[in-house]
Hints:
- The chain is built from 15 helices and no strands.
- By secondary structure, it is mainly alpha-helical.
- The protein has a single domain, classed as ADP-ribosylation/Crystallin J1 (ADP-ribosylglycohydrolase fold).
- Helix 1 (2-13) runs antiparallel to helix 3 (46-59), helix 7 runs antiparallel to helix 8 (146-164) and helix 8 packs parallel to helix 10 (196-208).
- The longest helix has 19 residues, at 146-164.
- The radius of gyration is 17 Å and the shape is globular.
- The two termini are 14 Å apart.
- 52% of the residues are buried.
- The mean pLDDT is 96.
Amino acid sequence: MLVEIAIGDAYGAGFEFCSREKIERSNTLASYVDHELGIAAGCYTDDTQMSIAISEVLLSEASATSATFADAFVRCYKRDRRKGYAKGMQALLDECPDGSSLRSRIKPESRRNGAAMRSVPLGLIPDKSLLLSVAEEQAAITHNTAEGILSSRVVALISHLLLYEQAKLSSLPRLVQEELGFELLSNWQQEVECDAIQTLHAVNTALQRNRRTSDLLIDCVNFGGDVDSVAAIAMGLASLSPEYASEVPKVLREGLEAGSYGTSFLQRLDAALAEKFTVLANRLQGAVV
């Protein structure tokens, strides 16, 4: 799950808000590409790092509260400073020593997609009511708006439905509508802004019309705009569905960053999650390769 999130994030990062010409020229899965703002090819961004923080809270004995998540966000960033965060958020993470300081200083009025991009691991929570409550807790730290909270809940709910209810991809819009009263579109065609609701529609559209992760990656990037978040969420969710064949090219699997928090670290974290949440272990054993 986390490896797939990171692959989607790292691949999309090279195309985030880039020109249409670059997408048409390089969105071929032949390799990762550098981003003009300094993100090296194969390196993941805040989408993955904050998903790691969420996962570490789920693995810990601590309660899944705003305070615990905020501490995890700061801790994960301090040990592995990286590019990709919004400028204001990165400045706060650089300055704040802990989660309490972050929560006291941040202005969480954002309607952007930062709460959604880190919510796939929340689907591991077995109780649906608790899941939706925890999704709000973590979203409220940075995105305490109706759109921010809803986006986290939608992504977490879809993850949960795929894992615990073996929901068919085609049923997801109906199930989300029944649970949350939100109409999830399946025909998004525009460039994706850093917008919570647009991101949900783009993710669902790409998930619905593909069945191979290679095709999914290309489709997510082809939207243009904030494509690393779209690809990270979509790849994480696709990894939980038996309807998706895992066909990520070898060059992307092997080209994902190494280092202390690279591929091996993500694999160990995935294994720890699968050990604690057997539903993930069952999904991994039944994965189509």
